[in-house]
Amino acid sequence: MRNRIFQGATAVEDQWQLVEEDSTTSAEVHLLYHYADWIENRATYLAQPGAKGVLLSNTDDVASLMPDLERLALICIDFPEAVDGRGYSQARLLRDRLGYSGELRAVGEVLVDQLFLMRRCGFDAYALPDKNVECISKYLDPFTVKYQ
Amino acid sequence: MYQYSALDQQLVDERVEQFRDQTQRFLAGELSEEAFRPLRLMNGLYIQTHAPMLRVAIPYGLLASDQLRKLAHIARTYDRSFAHLTTRQNIQYNWLKLEDVPDVLEELSRVEMHAIQTSGNCIRNTTADHLAGVVADELDDPRPYCEIIRQWSTLHPEFSFLPRKFKIAVSGSAHDRAATQVHDIGIYLVNNPDQGIGFRILVGGGLGRTPVIGKVIRDFLPRHQLLSYLEAILRIYNQQGRRDNKYKARIKILVNALGIDTFRDLVEEEWLHLKDSGIDLGEAEIEAMRQFFQPFEYIADTGEGEQALARSCQDSPAFRIWYERNTQEHKAGAYRIVNVSVKAPGIAPGDLTDAQMDGVAALADNFSFGQVRVTHEQNLVLADVRKVDLHAVWKGLVALDLSTPNIGTLTDLICCPGLDYCSLANASSIPIAKQIGDRFDDLDYLYDLGDIKIKISGCMNACGHHHVGHIGILGVDKKGEEWYQITLGGSAEEDASLGKIIGPAVAKDQVAETIAKVLDVYIAVRQEEETFLQCVRRLGIAPFKEAAYA
C-alpha cells in the first residue's frame, strides 16, 4: 500500500519508492535515492528514464546537488527529531540560493505544529508520521502576517 | 517607546490562538507531553517544581505603566499576587494553572505584550542597557536596534529549533551595563568616521557550564546590514552547532572548536550571499524605528531642582541617603535617574507584589513619563524623574517598600530562583541572598565597601551570572547537601572577566561568613579609592583564599 502524504494541504498517495540496496523497483513508481547513493552513481541514474529524487539527511551538503537540481523532481529532507532544526536551513538554501523548484518534502518527525515554519522555509510537501491527521490546512497557515 | 502596528498586533493575537489550540490539544490528550514540550517552551512555559512557570517578555526591559498594571492584574488574578524579575529583563509567574495560560497570554496581548521565545532553543528576548537614552555617555540609543532584532527573530521560520538557546544583547554606551560580552551575540554601537553609526559584533560569549567571553567577529558593521549579518551567524550555528550534547550545544562551543578566525570566514562567506538578498532594512526604516525612541521633551534646568533637593536632604537624612545611593545623573540637568531597589531585606531578589507593580506604575505616570525599565540586575528604574519630584517619588517608594538604599552595594545582588522554584537547580539561592542580607545589614559598612556585585546561581546553568560577579556564588549538590563554591574577580561590564574559584565549596550556613572574611581582607589591604574588584585584580585571589579558609 502506498503512503499518504500531503502536497500543500492536499492528501495524495505517494508515487515514490525509496531505493535501498536490495529493493526491487517497478516502472510504476518514481525512484528516490539516498544522498550517498546518488552522489556515487548520479551519472548512471541520470541516464535512466523516469523521474528522480534524492533523500537528504540533515547533515548532507545541499550545494553538491547543484548540477542535478533541474533534473530532480523531488528532494526529501529528513527530520530525525522534531526539535532538530537543520533541515530548515537546508530547505532555504535549496530554494533561495540554489533555485531548486521541484517538490521539497519534509519526512521523518514532521509534526503539525511545525508545518507553518516548514512551509515558510520552502517545503511544499509533508509526510506526516501521524496517520490520524486528516486536514493540515489550519496548521500550514496559522499566521496571516510575518516579520521575515 | 515602540507602539505596535496592526501587523504586530495581528501576529501576537494569532500566536495566542495558536497556543490556545495547542494547549487544548494537550489537555485533551491529542498532543503528547513530548510533542507539547517544545511548543510550550517556545511560549515561555516551563513545568517547574510547584506549577507551570510562565516567563513574559519585556523587550529590552522597557514597560509602559499600563503594561505594568496588566502584569499586576495577572499576578492578582491568576497567580499568588507576585511575580519575579529575571536576569533577562523579563518577568515570570510561578504559580499559574496550565489551563489559564492562554487567557493570560490574551490579557497580555491587549497591552502589546507576549511570551514568545522567552524559552526554548530559539532566539530569546534581546536585552539592552537599562539606561538607554538617558545617559550622557551614550553614542546612540540601542533600543531601536533591539526592536528590529525582536521583530526579525520573532517566529523566524529557519531559527526556531536551534541547537540551544540564543541570547543577544546591545549596548550603546562606553560603560557596558548590558553584560554584552557574555552573550551568544554581543553588539556594541560604534562610530566609524567614514561610515557613521554601526556595530562591533561579538560572538560566542556565554555563561553556564563553560563560561566564555565573546570574541570580536566584526569590528565594524554598517547599521543597515545588521539583519543579514545576524542571519549569516545563525545559519552557520544552526547547521554546525553540536546537537549531541546539550552542554556543548551553545554557539560558544562551536566558536571555540573552530577558532574565531575559521568561524568568521564561514560567516563572512555566508554573508556574501545574504547581504544583498533583501533581508536588510533601509535607512528610512531604521530612522522610522528610531523615531519611537526619541527623548522626551525635557524641561530646561533652572536650578529649581537643586534647591528643592538641598532642602529635602537637609530635612530628611533618610531621603539624602536614598538620593545619593539610588539615584544617578541624567543627561538632562533638571532630571535624575531613579533606581528602584527590588532588594529589600528578607524578600527574594526581584520579587514584586501586585501592589508594588501598581504603585510603581502610578509613580511612573505622575513623575516619569509613564515608563518603567527592568534591569538585568533585577531592579526597576524610573528613568526620567525631575529633581523637584524626587522627594515625592521617594515617599511613594518608601510606602511600597521599594526604597532600600542599597543600589550597587553588596546586598543589591543578582539571584536565580534556585531550588525553591526551579526544577534544574542543585541548591537554593534565595536563602543565601537572605543570609547575606541578614549578615550585612549595616548600611554604613555597605557604603564603606562601595560597589560590589554579588551574583548567585543555584546550578551550573548560571542564570544568576555567578561567573561574572565580583563575588560569585554557585550552589552545588554534594551527596544530597547544598554546598557553595565562591569565585572572585568576575565582571560583566566593558572590562569583562570570569571569576576565579577560591577553593573548596563551603557549607550552606558558612556562605555569608566566608564572604565577610574575604571583605575583611579587602578592607585591610585596599589602597585609596580602590574598589573591591580592582583590589582582587591587583592582588589575585591568594590573600582572599587564605583568609576564607583560615
Description:
The complex is a heterodimer of chains A (148) and B (550). With 148 residues, chain A is an alpha/beta fold. Chain A has a single domain, classed as TIM Barrel, CATH 3.20.20.70. Chain A has four helices and eight strands, in the order ββββαββαβαβα. Chain A has helices spanning 35-47, 86-97, 115-121, 137-140; strands spanning 4-7, 10-13, 16-19, 30-34, 52-56, 72-79, 103-108, 125-126. Chain A is globular and about 45 Å long. Chain B has 550 residues and is α+β, with helices and mostly antiparallel strands. Chain B folds into four domains: 6-109, Sulfite Reductase Hemoprotein, domain 2 (Alpha-Beta Complex), CATH 3.90.480; 142-289, Sulfite Reductase Hemoprotein, domain 1; 304-399, Sulfite Reductase Hemoprotein, domain 2 (Alpha-Beta Complex), CATH 3.90.480.20; 414-548, Sulfite Reductase Hemoprotein, domain 1 (2-Layer Sandwich). Chain B is 37% helix and 18% strand. Chain B is built from 18 helices and 21 strands. In chain B, a hairpin with a 4-residue loop joins strand 1 (45-47) and strand 2. In chain B, helix 5 packs across helix 9 (283-291), helix 14 (430-439) crosses helix 16 (511-525) and helix 16 crosses helix 18 (542-548). Chain B is globular and about 60 Å long. Chain B starts with 5 loop residues before the first helix and ends with a helix. The relative contact order of chain B is 0.09. The interface between A and B is medium-sized, with 26 and 30 residues.
